[in-house]
Design brief:
Length: 101
């Protein structure tokens, strides 16, 4: 299973909790990513905290882009389970031309 956890207001709310859960997931052979809407220049804190557990190379900042599409296109990764305090940030942003009038 591929898991992706958000950083701000998700991981940061209780890092010890998530370290325990994500560590168990890794031990059981699951893959764990951290996917934040932060810009790349803001990812240092992410890689210095959760990145120590899961690896800095699997911490991604989408720069505000929808997370699911970003991971598919940039990381060639299709996440199975998202853990996020703002689930709307995972899904595609509707095409403005197709939105309600
Ligand atoms: Mg968040």
């Amino acid at each position: 299973m591929i898991l992706a956890i958000d950083f701000d207001e998700t991981y940061t709310r209780d890092p010890e909790l998530w370290d325990g859960l994500l560590g168990a997931a890794l031990t059981r052979g699951h893959r764990v990513f951290c996917v934040s809407a932060r810009h790349e220049r803001q990812m240092g804190e992410v890689r210095a905290t959760i990145g120590r557990l899961i690896g800095p190379e699997v911490c991604f900042g989408t720069g505000g882009a929808p997370k699911r599409r970003f991971m598919a296109e940039v990381a060639d990764t299709h996440v199975d389970v998202w853990i996020d305090d703002a689930p709307e940030s995972v899904v595609e942003i509707p095409d403005p031309g197709q939105g309600p009038a």
